[in-house]
Structure formats: structure tokens, C-alpha cells
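Researcher: Going back to the complex we discussed earlier. I've cleaned up the inputs and rechecked each line, so this should be the final set. Can you rerun the prediction on the complete assembly and write out the structure?
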Amino acid sequence: MRTLQAVLLSVALVVLLALPRVLSQYHVTLVLPALAYAIALLGYNLLFGYTGLLSFGHALFVAIGGYGAAVLSSRLGLKSFELILLLSAVTAVLVAIPIALLSVRYVKIFFGILTLAFGMLFHSFLFKFYNLTGGDTGIRVLRPTLLGRAYEDLDKTTWLVGPFYYYCVVLLVVLGFVMWRLVHSPFGLHLVATRENRRKSEYLGVRVRFFRLIAFAISAFYCAVGGAILAINTGQADPELAYWTHSGDLVFMTVLGGFGNFFGPVVGAFSYVFLKDQLVGMTQYWRFWLGLILVILVVLFPRGLAGLFERMWARLHRSTM
Amino acid sequence: MSSFLDILIGGVFHAAVLFLVAAGLQLVFGVQKIVNLACGSFYALGAYFGITAVTWCIAHGMPPALFLPVLIVAGLVVGLIGPFIEALLLTVYHRDEAFQLLLTFALVLMFQDVLRFFWGADPQQLGDLVMSYGRVHMGAIQVPTYNLLVIFASIAIALGLGAFLQKTRFGRILRATAENREMSLALGVNVRWMYASVFTLGTMLGTVGGALVVPTAAASLDMPVELVVEAFAVVVIGGLGSMRGALVGALIVGLMRAAAISWYSELEMLAIYLVVIVVLVARPGGLFGKPLE
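Model: Rerun complete. Updated structure for the full complex:
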């Protein structure tokens, strides 16, 4: 399994790097949101998959990333993408800490509802305070510089599918590696322990709420990075980013890919974005089919695509042995 | 003074409708322990179906003044989709809450397009039928009689529901099942049947609520997703699973919304979520809910 994972990973990376040369520009601009969601979901799954806390409000942090990019680039004139990412993500963490302090006392449905309430609080703030946030139209996001380079000779799409794309792939790899180390560290094991048996882990000296808080903050960081990429890709940050159905989409993607597997959320992000694109192109009733797929997933394949793959691999392995 | 009365009547009207949806949510959560995100979709379904039913009836020679009973019947009839939805939820009763929530989220997505398929993307309205009932003068203000009728209808349903849960045999068994599922199973309660009927009752409360609101407001595709968060606010403030909580929560949310709209409209939903958060932090179980572990 280990070697298989390494092989698959390298193949995936090569494919990702080669995509701009193979696919049309349109399809590459589709990969960008997939990369953004993949980053966001890696963080989200630390909370959902590993810690067992179902948040229905993480679109809040995606929106903070998006609006962070918008405000910093078009209102404050900050151009450096690195600084934008850092500032937005740190803002998200600062917002996440008080929310987490209040929310992590609860589990299950109460945690879900409380996070939903915070998400909607932010959404109505974005929606109603027109002067500050641009209301329902949101704020434009200007093109930032990457590592100090402005690429002024490139038009918007060429820039997106060129330097920006590679930048995001690198971000995914780096943040993915950090997350991999996190979940395999004692910290990650602590989180799983609190998920599996809260009382027992408390008895063993795990500070459950503290660990949940940290996981929450990290997930907010990742979601904000994803949100900034999303907003730069569309050139606009609007309140829909924070709406509760967007949080639902995040959960959907995670389950689609399989939250029991480290790479599940990444798989989920890519499959969701392409699935949705296909459905939107085929029918105006794409929500119905998306919903139906979710029903089938929940009822028949709760472990998602990654779980399905694992099971097939195991069966294949047994039959060849 | 007149603006205060306006807010009061407007708020209570909104609360009356919210209560119906929230009561459905509470019933289902109380018994099945499932938080149904699709309650807003039922509400919208009731609204759209109500419009169609009334339009059809008037086209077939019904005097327009009879639209209120038609709306109620339409709500009850379309609520009969309840058992079918419940049959789907059956697959996740013993699963993790994440899956239960996701399944109802999938229903929200699907219903969105079902509504779009049958009624189109444009908001639908019932015209000014409301005025056929005239207005009532209350001191300095005038209130459409229809709004008062809805408030009374909702109070009647609340009282009926209370009596049903407290006084009837079925209501007692229902509460017993909510309290302890295994024990009621052991005592021979047909839990399958109980779940299906409770879910249908909850669905009907939502669809009737939607049907009742439609003469005063347009039915649109945003309805379901917007109402869900309000209904959530109601049940969280009141306490999950508590009927009394649904009533008080609906009044709080309804009045606050009406007050915010007329005084400082930026605060409309913001104020409601703030109350939700304050309540959850100060009294995690809600005002009337059971305290958490």
C-alpha cells in the first residue's frame, strides 16, 4: 500500500504539472478551483475526518480568505500574493479562535448548528453592510504578484493557467505535506483518540478542548488559503462564499472523496468540480443529480471514492495472491 | 405607537408561520433524533403547491374567498410525500449524524430543482387575494384580516398539537418513544409506524406553513435555504426537541426580525444569529431544551 501510494502520488503530481500543456485553457481554469478546494478540504478534514467534528460553517473561513484577498488587493493596494495569503489565513485563525472556544465544548449536531450560526452571521454581515463589503456584488479581487513578479505582459487567463496555476500546485503540495506530517504526528493521533473515545483520552491526560481548538484553527487557516485562491480565480469575492450551502458543498466534497482517507478530500475536490461542470453543461437541473449522487453516496458508499478504491485494491490484491 | 403595533402584528405573523415549520423540525428531532435540513424545502413545496391549487380551484369556478381552506388542504395533501422521504431516511437512522445531515442536505439540493422543474425559476405570486378578506382596524393601524386568520390558525394548530401530544394515547406513545426508543420497542410499540407517522406530521406542519404564507409573500427558489436557517435559529433558541421552545423561539425570532426590519434593516438576520449564539453559549440546551452532557 505504501509503495502504491507513492507511485500514485508521483503520477498525480506529474499529471497536475502537465495539465496546462495538455488541456484547453477552459479546463485548466477548472482545475484551479479544484486545487483551491483541495487545500481547503485538507484542512477541513483535520476537523471532520480526524477530530470527528462536523462543521456546517466552514464556508466562513473560505469567505475570509476570499474577502481578505479582495480587501487587501483592491482596497489597500497590497499586491504580494504571499502576504495576502498569510494575512488572510492569519485573520481566519484569529476569527476561528473565539468561535472555536465557544464551539468545541459541543460535539455532533450542536457543534454543527453553532458553526452554521457563525457562518450565517458572517454572511449577513457581508450581505447587509454594503459600504464596507460591497453587499451582494462583493468586492473585486485584483491580480497579485507572485514572489514579487507581476507578469504584466500576460492577459488574465494566460496568467491564471500559467504562473498562478503552478504556484497553486506548489501550494497544494507544500500544505499537503505539512498536513500529512500533522496527522501522523502525536498531535494527529491525539485528535483521533479524542474522536474515538473522549473520556478515555481525557483520562489519559489529553486536553480534549485544547486539541480541538488547535485543529479548528488549522482548518480555518487552510480554508482561508483555499478561499483566497478561489477569489483570485473568479476575480470577485461575494457573500455566496459564506452561505451555508457552500459549507454544505465542502462537506459534500469531503464525503465524496472519503473522509477516512488522507487523500480523500483532494480526490473529492477534483471529482466534485469536474462532476459539477459536466452536470451544469448537460442540464439546468444539475442540483437534482448532484443531490441524487449525494444520496447514493451516503446510503451505499459512505466511505467515498477513496474507500471504494481501497476496497477494490484489497480485493484485487487478495485474488492475485 | 402605531409603528410598535405594526412590528408586533408583523412579528407575530412571521412567528406563527415559523412556529409551524419549527414544530415539524422539533417533532422529527424529538423522535428520530434527525435534524432535517429539508424542512425549508417542505415549506417551499407547500407554498408553490398552494399557489397552484388555489389558481386551479378559482379557474374551476371556486369563489376566491374560499382560498384559505384550499391552501390548508393543499398543504396537507402535499405533505403526504412525508412517508416516502422517511423511507429514504430509514437507511441512516443508526448511522453517524454527519450522514443524516448530509442526506437531508442532498434532499435540499434535489428539491431545489424539483421546484424549478414544476414551477420555473421566476417567483410565483397569488395576486391580491388577501384583500378579499378585507382589513381590520386596530387603533391607528390596519391589518389584513388574512394575517390575523393565519395567526389564529397557527395558535389553533399549536393548541391542537399540544393536546394531541399530552392527552391522546398516540401522543403519549410518541413521547415515550422520543424518551426511550429501546424501551418502547420492548413494550411492543410499532416504532416503524411511529417514525413514519411522526415524520409525515412534521412534513405537513412545514407544507401547511408554506401554503399559509404564500398569499402574503411570493414563493421563490430562495425560500427553502433561507427559511432553514431561521427555523434552525428558532429551535436552537427554544431548545432542540421542545415544543414549548419552538413557540417561544418563533416569537423571539419573529418579533426581532420585524423590529430589526423597521428600525435598522442591516441588523435583520445578524441580530437573530447573535441571539442564537448568545443562547447557545449561555444555555447550551436552549431555553426549554434538556441540558447537554
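Model: Worth noting: Residues 25-240 of chain A form one domain.
Researcher: Good, that matches what I expected from the previous run.
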